[in-house]
Amino acid sequence: MPEDRDWEVYKVPPTRTPVYERTTSVPNPATFFQTVFNYVVDAPVTFVREWIERQQNKNKFYYYHQKFRRVPDLSECLEGDYLCFFEAEAQWRRDRMVDQEIVEIVRERLGACKLREGPNQFQNCAKEVEQLAQVTKAYQDRYGDLGVHGNARTCLMKQKHRMMEERKAQANASQ
């Protein structure tokens, strides 16, 4: 900067800022209402919320890791034990949903691999294609041809018929 400054144009700010002094002895009503609100409404609500959070942190419960106990299969239920039939049916439905999600996850992995690899997908995604084929075949063997109204009993009968056909084929092959 040049040495010959014009002090009138470039005024220097004051070295000390003046302190605001109250001119009245009446308190500010906004400050009063804010303090009353903090003590009457905000403090109790905050205290209760923090207490609840402390209690919840002591007893953590993870909903997404719920584990059901395995119930007996439908073939292990006694005749006329309707509660066992109901539990086996519920277990079968859970197993079917889990198997559907497994197929969906493997399918998504294959799609991601194909998207990631582009034109090289046939060489680099062969493992995922094989895994999807295995998972789909296993799902089809167990739940295929049951339809929308499939249940544990029809699935068990399907498995029984498949086992009988395999035994017939083994017996015919050995003769």
TrEMBL record:
Classification via InterPro entries: NADH_UbQ_OxRdtase_su10, NDUFB10
Pfam families xrefs: NDUFB10
Keywords for the protein's UniProt record, in alphabetical order: Electron transport, Membrane, Mitochondrion, Mitochondrion inner membrane, Respiratory chain, Transport
Membrane topology recorded in Swiss-Prot or TrEMBL: Peripheral membrane protein
UniProt main location, coarse: mitochondrion
Gene Ontology, cellular component aspect: mitochondrial inner membrane; respiratory chain complex I
Subcellular localization, as worded in the UniProt entry: Mitochondrion inner membrane
Primary role: Accessory subunit that is involved in the functional assembly of the mitochondrial respiratory chain complex I. Complex I has an NADH dehydrogenase activity with ubiquinone as an immediate electron acceptor and mediates the transfer of electrons from NADH to the respiratory chain.
Family stated for the protein in its record: Belongs to the complex I NDUFB10 subunit family.
Full protein name: NADH dehydrogenase [ubiquinone] 1 beta subcomplex subunit 10
Species for this entry: Cochlearius cochlearius
Organism lineage: Eukaryota, Metazoa, Chordata, Craniata, Vertebrata
Gene that specifies this protein: Ndufb10
